Amino acid sequence: MNVPLTLLGLLERQSSHGYDLKRDYDTYFSPTKPLLLGQVYSTLGRLARDGKVVVGPAEPGAGPDRKRYVITERGATEVEAWLTEPVEAEQHLQTELFTKVVLALMLGRDASAYLDLQRAAHVARMRALTEIKRQGPLVDKLLADHSMFRLEADLRWIDVTQARLGALAEEVCK
Amino acid sequence: MSGAAGPDAAALLEARAAVLAFGRTPALRGTDLRVARGEIVAVMGPSGSGKSTLLHCLAGILVPDSGEILFDGRRVDRMREAERSELRRDRFGFVFQFGQLVPELTAEENVAMPLLLGGARRGTALTEARDWFPRLGLEGLERRRSGELSGGQAQRVALARAMVARPDVLFADEPTGSLDTYTGEQVMELLVDAVRANGTTAVIVTHDARVAACADREVMVRDGKVTSPHLERTGP
């Protein structure tokens, strides 16, 4: 997650205090892993140093949190560029999973049983996410959906690997 | 009804060492499965693994060559065809991949079918059938024929037909297999809500992990046998 650009994006929506920014970030983008307030202020400090935000004057009756941050033209340009660029289509190979299967085969262990267990763990996680989807707000549903599609990709890999275990064993045990 | 009932609770439905071959091709090779009352179990497995054959044996559509099939303590595999037919009609509901509605009938007539076959009067059956339409988001579609329904609508009508007689067990074979992800998810939510509300036990054959994730637990069928990693870990 690109925290600085996400905060900038939230600031383009409307100028904001640091604490309100943190609250919006946590609500929409990271409900299970909230940002530390210190990280929010250090990020805002860097954005101000780089001319992407400006800090408004302290507001009346205010504590340290009563400064309003406003995005600059430069910041807005950066957000626009970021939002139109595709994310790199990374190859999300689960290296540990792959390593375990290959090593199990090399060592004559039961790779099939391991894959079955891994499969059960994946489906159990999907079941927990399904429960979140049934009860949670739409933002949580969408985040859960994304996790589920990634888990599904792993499951497909597990199924295909399960079907190819014999051939894979021959190859890695030469 | 919650999904608290696990595989160790008293079984409503059970396969014991079921063996079945089609000619010389083995489909089930000593399959065991216990399903507790009120439980939703997903049966997964590769194509040709025997998962649909297992469902057909549990539902009394097929009879295994050897082994036992038990429903509510009764030996389904020893019943005559007429008895099994009666069991399927009175105690079980079915949802298949393509709805399989009767095209000549309206949606409400399709839903009423199990009640009519069970001897209900037409008016009563149609009234009960119509109750299901708002519950499944099908208001206004009562008089449509299957050709005039979308895939998701047809599958919801099929679900209503399967549940209208309040079956003890719902058997579903790839119930979302012909639907896109979003529509399939809606159908599964309605299916789970309906079986939970009715206390119905459900056996769902699927290759889709998202569908399996709606169940209380899943089992894998591979080469005609049920494998369950959890059971293996606690075995001797």
Description:
The complex is a heterodimer of chains A (174) and B (236). Chain A is mainly alpha-helical and 174 residues long. Chain A has 7 helices and 3 strands, in the order αβααββαααα. Chain A has a 3-stranded antiparallel β-sheet. In chain A, helix 1 crosses helix 4 (73-84) and helix 5 packs antiparallel against helix 6 (111-135). Chain B has 236 residues and is α/β, with parallel strands linked by helices. Helix content of chain B is 36%, strand content 25%. Chain B has helices at 51-58, 81-91, 107-117, 122-135, 151-163, 181-198, 209-212, 229-234; strands at residues 11-22, 25-36, 40-44, 66-71, 74-75, 92-95, 169-173, 201-205, 217-222, 225-227. A 6-stranded mixed β-sheet of chain B has the order 6-7-8-3-9-10, sandwiched between helices. A 4-stranded antiparallel β-sheet of chain B has the order 2-1-4-5, with helices on one face. The longest helix of chain B is centred in the C-terminal third of the chain and has 18 residues, at 181-198. Chain B starts with 10 loop residues before the first strand and ends with a helix. The model of chain B is unreliable at 231-236 (pLDDT under 50). The chains are: A mainly alpha (174), B alpha/beta (236). Chains A and B meet through helix 6 and helix 7 of A and helix 7 and helix 8 of B. Chain B: It comes from Actinacidiphila epipremni. Chain B: Pfam families: ABC_tran. Chain B: This is ABC transporter ATP-binding protein. Chain B: Residues 13-234 form the ABC transporter domain.
Secondary structure elements and pairings:
The complex is a heterodimer of chains A (174) and B (236).
Chain A: H1 3-13, E1 16-17, H2 18-29, H3 37-49, E2 53-55, E3 68-71, H4 73-84, H5 95-106, H6 111-135, H7 138-172
Antiparallel strand pairs in A: 1-3, 2-3
Chain B: E1 11-22, E2 25-36, E3 40-44, H1 51-58, E4 66-71, E5 74-75, H2 81-91, E6 92-95, H3 107-117, H4 122-135, H5 151-163, E7 169-173, H6 181-198, E8 201-205, H7 209-212, E9 217-222, E10 225-227, H8 229-234
Parallel strand pairs in B: 3-8, 3-9, 6-7, 7-8
Antiparallel strand pairs in B: 1-2, 1-4, 4-5, 9-10
Domain Transcription regulator PadR N-terminal (chain A): 7-80
Pfam families (chain A): PadR (PF03551)
Protein name (chain A): PadR family transcriptional regulator
